[in-house]
Each structure stands twice: as structure tokens, then as C-alpha cells.
RNA sequence: GGGCUCGUAGCUCAGUUGGUUAGAGCGCACGGUUCACAUCCGUGAGGUCAUAGGUUCGAAUCCUGUCGAGCCCACCA
């Protein structure tokens, strides 16, 4: 291996090689980790869609998860990060349908078996793309335990779960109103329906009273459903219509006679206050219909076309029927008026087609029963949600949960393990014995299977060693947008089947937005594709750009310049390392000599603690910022600069070694690469399995360390002086200093050298003070112009005034803690002193 | 209708339990390249912390109202 580092860090060449080394080492598998490792730390990776492509949302999740995993691995824990992919029922099926549509086919023409063959071929083709991309992000997950939600063992787990719940009476089948996507030809759960604000019309239609010339006016957004009306309803309090209650309406077009009923769910103030009731095609109407035992007439079929019940409109589309009905009503002078109206249109979350509420035979889970312990688990603090405010959202959803429709009329998925023969129904994994059994054709909601993710990936329903060791998992990490879809379902499922929580902490990251603060959209081209970015700027830079400046649960923006900025940081680390590794070898012991030595070791020590505690408290941004600040603005800007005149090579090596460890969870590639060039790439030496560095307290003399801060301040002041007075950087300056701490500088040859080098100083002279720092006054032998002096006097005077008024406030003196009061007094004394010097 | 988040420098954002004269990155201005890095170094300008009240010795931070931006949930046809 070439130890000499190139001038700049070239991620493209390095990263895939590094990942291969990690993977081949076997250390992603906790069984192979060295050492005793008593504690465990485990996480299940949220499985991405097997045929999908990695986007920044995934990248965010993978980064945070991998930081936690690498950190805990270095903390000496038996650490498992279990990866996998999801079959993603609807999404994948849509993709395959699009594919076969190109050859003029649809799935029904193809048939179930042939379609599934195509889908599996598609999965095979793209299934490795996403796992390759997960590797590209640096995820240190155990591929030997990888799962796919439709692989054999996982399918067996899904079937077992279904059968058990069915036998326990938690799953039932029934005719109920469901959300129906006409494009997917499938039922959807409430969560898979998105409401989109749409401009539409509100039509006011005259409904004639039976046996009268009078009529009631109903307002509707869906005139075509009037063919399925089985009542007209008003609020019982509504005086306008009281006298009509109990009478009947002669429904236009169909001339059916329907009752006028009352229901308190009717809003008197909306529209005309009279509502047409269509139990078959509206959620609320369905409930009202059920309570009033109204008949149900299905006029829209699963194909989105009118049924035979729609009479003359049979076979027509909803849109066409609406159009014709409105025309007819107008012709018959039954259309009173039409208003513009904005309402929420229900659409399929996956394909965007309008969703029709209609009645259909589906499988449901009694969710309320499952929700109870899931609520308790969070309430009791067994499960902690970060950020905590999402607990409220979780409770609201759980408390109002409705039965979960789990059957889908899709082919790509787990076929429901229920068998029929005549009137007989059997739930079982295998076909019951005997002739003539036919399996339910439907498949299960994808989220039913992913709800089992934390424990089925560890071997459930078998009682495995893994399950005992790694469940409950330590943390689940995901975007807040799938709190209900996944986190809530996993909690319910785990508590039901495992009788234990699936994870102790839920960390929810924010969603990634584009530079304008909008959701990234592939079709609009506003998204940033992480994969080309990793190639251009390096994965480590991407990882930092997803962590720094972000907070749990808060959406954040990502754009290329940001990534480029972190690339610069990575390059800085590369070059600091290049500098240190190019120094002559030194076998010297770690001895702290100068105040700079004490200072930098002290700062490093604080960094160790800071990063560890921030990771443990899920404050990844703070941890990452501390790493960034230390390396660039403390180590590189000060210590490495100084080492050019006064070198302590063992310390340089020590800092670099420790820094590589501390920053490794965040920027694994560059750190491992530098490490392996330095220490050799032997498997035992890999950075990823090093121990988290220990405390340096014993080494540090705190006072000496603090002295260096004085040097920093002095250097900065002199540089400032130089810039203000336009003194060329190379022009030598004479500075003289005295005061309480002047000894610090003059007695220490390192410090004198440091100052001379950093500030290009020479000579000493005694004169009145030009500037002062706490305990130190200095004179720069250069004529200060009046303008800048005046400016400084004004600033100091203002500050003094502020302090004086604070300290003359009796209440402040009486009530503020003594420490605060005395520190304010010190400040005032200092400033007065400073002012005096300035006025001399 | 219910709920949540955000509003801090030109831009993107930090700011932990209230306590130095409110910070960073980018951008901008000025200056700097033999000797790790121009993906660099130094210095600087720039903010009445959306707004009005309140609590407090003390508020960007806690409370209330208002304005503005965004999001989630929900069966107003």
C-alpha cells in the first residue's frame, strides 16, 4: 500500500475498495467481532423497495443508522445492523404492469402465474441495484442476515402470523365500504389514500316530493351517485324541513321512491341542508345507511364503470355518466344552480388515480385491540419517540384507529393463507387435505408483512438465538412520514406476537427538501440523486450534508453547494493527514510540553465526550459540528500551523489517530482509507473495529491549556490590527507585552516562537498600551489611526454603560445568583480598565 | 374542523435546562500562493432574533395574542 497520500482525496477510486474490505472482513456480522462484548446493540434497517432506487430519504436513514451502529460497535457492543428489502406490493406491481403494457399486454391477459414470473424476473434484475446502493452509502450491515419480505422464511412468518391472528379472532372477512383504486383494481387502507385539494363544482339538484309539485334541493359534488341514493337526510333540528320528515322523494331519472330521514351528522349550514344518502359510495352515507337500515345499491363497479343497477348508464365511466346526468337534469329543469367548489379529492397514494369508496368483501384486522398495548408501551416510556412531540401524533392516530383493511386484489405479495371449499373456510399455511380446496386470491397489504420486520428477520416464529439476543432492537430509525404505516404497525405486531416491544427508541428524521424547500420530486426533476453525488463529492460528504444543521423530525434542504462544502472538509482532513504522515517517524513518547500541546489535547478530550454524549442523545448535528470545528478550526488552523515551528510529532500522531476514530462513524470511508495507509490494511487493524478512545484527563494541565487561549486571542488581535492598519502581512512588527499573564508568553520559548511565526513579530519596546486582553497588555509599535481608536472607545463605553445599569439594579443584585453578579462585576472592572488605557 | 412545525445576517441553518457584547457555513469586501490543502489562509462588513403584550433581576429561549410560510390528521355532502 502506498503510504504517500495524493494531493486531494479521490473518493471514487477509494470507496468501493474500502467497502469490499469491510464486507470481506466479516465484521459486519456481530458473531465475528473480537473481544468479549457483553452488551448488544441492534437495529433493523427499514427495508427499501426491492426494485426501487436509492434517494436522499434512504441516504439520510442509512447515514444516521450507520453512525449509531459504528459508534456502538466501537463502544465494544455486539452490534447488529440487519438489512433487507421490501417487495412493496403496489409499487412493484405498477412497474411490472407498465413493463408488460409496452408489449400490449395487461396482467389479466397474461394470467397470474405468468405475471408473477415476470415480477420475479424484474425483482431479480433490480433487486441487487438497491443493495449495491446501500453499500455505496457505507452502511455497515450484516449481509449474511439479509432478508427480503417475500423470501421463503419471511413468507412463512407472514403466513403464520395471519393464521394465528385469524384463529385468535383478530382477523375477519366482511362486506364493508372500502377505498377502491380503480386503476390498481384493489382495496386500499385509509393510509394509502391521499387527499388532494381540487377545484370542482357543487351542484344543487331538485328532488321532487312524492305526490307533490314541491321539491327539496340537495347539494352534491357527485351527481352520478344519485342513481344509488336510498334516502334523503336533514338535521333533526332543521326547522325548514321538519314537516317533510317521514315523507318520501321521487328520485329523478330513476323514479325510485326514497324516504326523508333525519340524522344529527347532517350540517344544517352546508349547501341546502339536505343531503342525498348513497350508502354504497360514500363513507358517511354508509354509516348513516347502516344506522337507518337503508338498502344499499351499488351503481359503480370495481372497474370504475357503472353497474347494471345504473340502468341505462350501465358500462359507462363515472365521468361520462356525470356529464349525461347533469345534462338530463338540466333538460328536465331539475338543476337549480351550480357553484364553484374546492374540496378534497381522494387519490391512490401510489398511482394517483381517484379513489372510489365502494362496498367490497375484504379482510380486516381489529386494530383497536392491537392498539391498546401499543399506546401503553409509549405512554409508559418503554418506547421513547425522538423527537417527543410525535408521541402526541402517535397517540391521536392510535386512539382513533379503525379496522385495518389488509387484503389487496394484487398478485405481487403474500397470498392470503385461507382456503375455501363450498361453505367451508380454513386458514392454514398449507392446503387442507382433501379435494376441491381453493386458496383466497387476494394478497396481503405490504405493511402487514413489514410490521413483522424486527422479529421475523431474526427467525420468528422459530425461537432462535438471534431473537433472544437482538430483540427488542435498540433503535428504529425512519422518516416521520411512515410513523403510522410502519412504526405503529410494528409496535402492534410485536406486542401481539412477541409480547414485547420491537424497539426501545424511535428516531424520526426530517424529510429531505430541495433548495426551495419543496418536496423533492423525480418527475419535476427537483431532486438530488445521491448516487452521482457520491461519485462526484464522495459518500462522506453526502453523509455530512444529511446530518449537519439538521434536527430530529425537522425537514431540511439539500443542494449541491452544501455537499461541495463538506467535500472541502473531507479534503481538509485528507491534507492534514497528508502533512502528518509525511513527517519523520518518531518513536517518542506522548509528552505534553507547550501550552499548545495541553490545549489541543484538552480540546480533543472534550471532543471525545461531546461526540459520545451527543450521539447517545441523538443529537447528530451537534456531534458532527463539533468534529468539523475541531479538525478545521482548532487542529488545522492552530495546532498544525504551530507545529511548523515547534513540532511535537507524537502529539500530532496521537491527535490524528484519535480523531480518525471519533469521526469514523460519520465519515467512514476517508477515515478508514487514511488509517489503512498509515497502519497497514490488515484485517485486525481495521479502523471500524477499534475501540472508542479513552479519556485523556490525566495528561492535561488545565491551566497551561487555558494559557493557549490567550495566545490565540493575542494572535487574532494582532492580525486584526494589521488588517485594519493595512500593514502588509510580511512586514515585521514589534510588540511588547506586560501585565499579569505576560509571563506566560515571555517565559515560554514555545509561545514566543509561536507568536513570532504566526504574527511575524520581532523586537520589543516599552510604551503605553495599544491593546489589552484579560491579564495582558500589549503594545504594537505602529501608529494607530484615530478613527479605529475612536470606534473602539465608543464600543467599550457602550458596553460599560450597559454593565453599569445592570449592576445598579438592586433587584438584580438581590435576586440573581452570586456567581452571575460577580462575573458581571469582573467584566465591568475589565472594561473600565480597557477604556482608561484607550484614553491615555 | 383538530393538531404540528417554522419565522434568527443577502442565502441555508445552529443556538441543549432562561444568564458573556446572539453564532456557523455559503455569499460579499479587502489582503495573502515556494515549503499539507486555492477543495487553501488571514481580516472585515452585515442581525432592534416576524410582531404586540406578559412572566422574570434577566427572554432568541417560557406564556398569550396577531401576521406570514409549510405540513399532518379528519366522513361536511
Features:
840 residues, alpha/beta, 4-stranded mixed β-sheet, 27 helices, 28 strands, RNA-binding
Structure explained in plain terms:
The chain is α/β, with parallel strands linked by helices and 840 residues long. 44% of the residues lie in helices and 17% in strands. The chain contains 27 helices and 28 strands. The strands form ten sheets. A four-stranded antiparallel beta sheet has the order 6-5-14-16. Strand 18 and strand 19 form a beta hairpin. The protein is elongated and about 110 Å long.
**Mean pLDDT figure:** 90
Give Rg in angstroms.
36 Å
What characteristic shape results from the CA principal axes?
elongated
Order of strands in the sheet with the most strands? 6-5-14-16
- How many runs of DSSP E, i.e. beta strands? 28
The amount of helix comes to 40-55%
Which oligomerization state do the chains in this entry correspond to?
Answer: single chain
| Largest sheet properties | 4 strands, antiparallel
Low-confidence stretches: 764-769
Number of helices: 27
Distance between the termini: 64 Å
Q: Supply the helix-strand structural class.
A: alpha/beta
Strand content: 15-25%
Amino acid at each position: 500500500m502506498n503510504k504517500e497520500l495524493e494531493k486531494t482525496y479521490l473518493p471514487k477510486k477509494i470507496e468501493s475498495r474500502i467497502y469490499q474490505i469491510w464486507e470481506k472482513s466479516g465484521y459486519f456480522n456481530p458473531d465475528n467481532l473480537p473481544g468479549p462484548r457483553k452488551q448488544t446493540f441492534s437495529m433493523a434497517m427499514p427495508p427499501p423497495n426491492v426494485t426501487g432506487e436509492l434517494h436522499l430519504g434512504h441516504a439520510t436513514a442509512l447515514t444516521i443508522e450507520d453512525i449509531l451502529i459504528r459508534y456502538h460497535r466501537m463502544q465494544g457492543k455486539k452490534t447488529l445492523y440487519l438489512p433487507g428489502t421490501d417487495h412493496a406490493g403496489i409499487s412493484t406491481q405498477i412497474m411490472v404492469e407498465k413493463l408488460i403494457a409496452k408489449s400490449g399486454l395487461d396482467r389479466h391477459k397474461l394470467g397470474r402465474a405468468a405475471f408473477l414470473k415476470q415480477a420475479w424476473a424484474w425483482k431479480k434484475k433490480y433487486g441487487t441495484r438497491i443493495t449495491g446502493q446501500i453499500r455505496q452509502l457505507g452502511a455497515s450491515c450484516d449481509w449474511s442476515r439479509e432478508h427480503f419480505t417475500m423470501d421463503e422464511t419471511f413468507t412463512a412468518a407472514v403466513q403464520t402470523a395471519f393464521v394465528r391472528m385469524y384463529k385468535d379472532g383478530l382477523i375477519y372477512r366482511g362486506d364493508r365500504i372500502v377505498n377502491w383504486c380503480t386503476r390498481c383494481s384493489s382495496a386500499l387502507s385509509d393510509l394509502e389514500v391521499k387527499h388532494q385539494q381540487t377545484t370542482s363544482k357543487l351542484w344543487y339538484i331538485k328532488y321532487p316530493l312524492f305526490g307533490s309539485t314541491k321539491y327539496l334541493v340537495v347539494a352534491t359534488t357527485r351527481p352520478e351517485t344519485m342513481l344509488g341514493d336510498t334516502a334523503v337526510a336533514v338535521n333533526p333540528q332543521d326547522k325548514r324541513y321538519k314537516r317533510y320528515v317521514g315523507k318520501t322523494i321521487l328520485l329523478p331519472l330513476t323514479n325510485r321512491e326514497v324516504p326523508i330521514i333525519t340524522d344529527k351528522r347532517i350540517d344544517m349550514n352546508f349547501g341546502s341542508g339536505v343531503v342525498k344518502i348513497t350508502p354504497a359510495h360514500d363513507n358517511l352515507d354508509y354509516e348513516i345507511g347502516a344506522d337507518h337500515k337503508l338498502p344499499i345499491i351499488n351503481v359503480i363497479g370495481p372497474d370504475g364503470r357503472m353497474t347494471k343497477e345504473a340502468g341505462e348508464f350501465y358500462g359507462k365511466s363515472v365521468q361520462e355518466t356525470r356529464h349525461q346526468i347533469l345534462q338530463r337534469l338540466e333538460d328536465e329543469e331539475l338543476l337549480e344552480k351550480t357553484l364553484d367548489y374546492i374540496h378534497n379529492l381522494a387519490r391512490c397514494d401510489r398511482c394517483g388515480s381517484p379513489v372510489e369508496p365502494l362496498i367490497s368483501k375484504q379482510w380486516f384486522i381489529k386494530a383497536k385491540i392491537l392498539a391498546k398495548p401499543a399506546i401503553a408501551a409509549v405512554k409508559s416510556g418503554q418506547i421513547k419517540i425522538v423527537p417527543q412531540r410525535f408521541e402526541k401524533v402517535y397517540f391521536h392516530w392510535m386512539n382513533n384507529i379503525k379496522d385495518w383493511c389488509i387484503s389487496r386484489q394484487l398478485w405481487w405479495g403474500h397470498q392470503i393463507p385461507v382456503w375455501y371449499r363450498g361453505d367451508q373456510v380454513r386458514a392454514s399455511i398449507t392446503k387442507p387435505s382433501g379435494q376441491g380446496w381453493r386458496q383466497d386470491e387476494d394478497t396481503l397489504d405490504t405493511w402487514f408483512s413489514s410490521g413483522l420486520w424486527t422479529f421475523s428477520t431474526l427467525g420468528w416464529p422459530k425461537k432462535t438465538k438471534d431473537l433472544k439476543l437482538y430483540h427488542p432492537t435498540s433503535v428504529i430509525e425512519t422518516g416521520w412520514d411512515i410513523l403510522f404505516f410502519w412504526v405503529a404497525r410494528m409496535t402492534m405486531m410485536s406486542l401481539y406476537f412477541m409480547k414485547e416491544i420491537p424497539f426501545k427508541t424511535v428516531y424520526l428524521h426530517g424529510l429531505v427538501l430541495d433548495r426551495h424547500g419543496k418536496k423533492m420530486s423525480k418527475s419535476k426533476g427537483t431532486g438530488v440523486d445521491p448516487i452521482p453525488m457520491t461519485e462526484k463529492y464522495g459518500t462522506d460528504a453526502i453523509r455530512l450534508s444529511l446530518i449537519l444543521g439538521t434536527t430530529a423530525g425537522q425537514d431540511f434542504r439539500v443542494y449541491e453547494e452544501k455537499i461541495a462544502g463538506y467535500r472541502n472538509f473531507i479534503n481538509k482532513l485528507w491534507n492534514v493527514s497528508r502533512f502528518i504522515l509525511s513527517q519523520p517517524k518518531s518513536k517518542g513518547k506522548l509528552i505534553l510540553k507547550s501550552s499548545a500541546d495541553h490545549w489541543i489535547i484538552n480540546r480533543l478530550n472534550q471532543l471525545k465526550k461531546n461526540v459520545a454524549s451527543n450521539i447517545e442523545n441523538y443529537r447528530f448535528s451537534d456531534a458532527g459540528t463539533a468534529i468539523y470545528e475541531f479538525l478545521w478550526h482548532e487542529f488545522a488552523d492552530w495546532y498544525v500551523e504551530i507545529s511548523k515551528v515547534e513540532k511535537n510529532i507524537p502529539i500530532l500522531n496521537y491527535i490524528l489517530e484519535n480523531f480518525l476514530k471519533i469521526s469514523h462513524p460519520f465519515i467512514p470511508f476517508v477515515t478508514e482509507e487514511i488509517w489503512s495507509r498509515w497502519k497497514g490494511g490488515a484485517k485486525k487493524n481495521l479502523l471500524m473495529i477499534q475501540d472508542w478512545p479513552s479519556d485523556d484527563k490525566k495528561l492535561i494541565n488545565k491551566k497551561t491549556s487555558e494559557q493557549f487561549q490567550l495566545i490565540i486571542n493575542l494572535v487574532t488581535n494582532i492580525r486584526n490590527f494589521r488588517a485594519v492598519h493595512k500593514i502588509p502581512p510580511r512586514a515585521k512588527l514589534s510588540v511588547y507585552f506586560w501585565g499579569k499573564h505576560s509571563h506566560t508568553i515571555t517565559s515560554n520559548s514555545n509561545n514566543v516562537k509561536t507568536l513570532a511565526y504566526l504574527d511575524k513579530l520581532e523586537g520589543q519596546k516599552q510604551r503605553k498600551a495599544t491593546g489589552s486582553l484579560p491579564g495582558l497588555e500589549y503594545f504594537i509599535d505602529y501608529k494607530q489611526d484615530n478613527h479605529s481608536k475612536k470606534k473602539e472607545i465608543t464600543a467599550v463605553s457602550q458596553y460599560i454603560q450597559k454593565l453599569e445599569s445592570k449592576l445598579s439594579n438592586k433587584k438584580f443584585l438581590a435576586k440573581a445568583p452570586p456567581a452571575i453578579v460577580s462575573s458581571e462585576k469582573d467584566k465591568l472592572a475589565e472594561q473600565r480598565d480597557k477604556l482608561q488605557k484607550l484614553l491615555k
